[in-house]
# Entry
Amino acid sequence: MTLCRNFFSDESVLPDEQRSEYKQLHKKCKDKYIADRIKCILALDNGYRYSEVSEMILIKESTVWRWKEEVNEGGMEQLLKNDYKGKDCYLREEQQKELERYLEEHICLSAKEVCAYVKKK
# Structure
């Protein structure tokens, strides 16, 4: 289904059943990233501009466009997919355990502090 808001009418483009399903999923969602994706699509369907949605959700406007395209191509299943994969860890297992022990005993207020500790070791 193509999500393309008709700006000349107040009609929602999402069928009522699907809109309701998105809202229910959002309420149950514990993953902030997925929740933001759902909010994005619902906001576009409510008639908000791409720039407004990006400001509301604190994401780039290009991300709003990409998420909308993902929904157009793969529907809700594609929207709910989170394929993010981080980088491989640079620390050996022994170093990771040492860092875990340090973090259990010390409060670091930023990633910068953690990086400084790792570099120092």
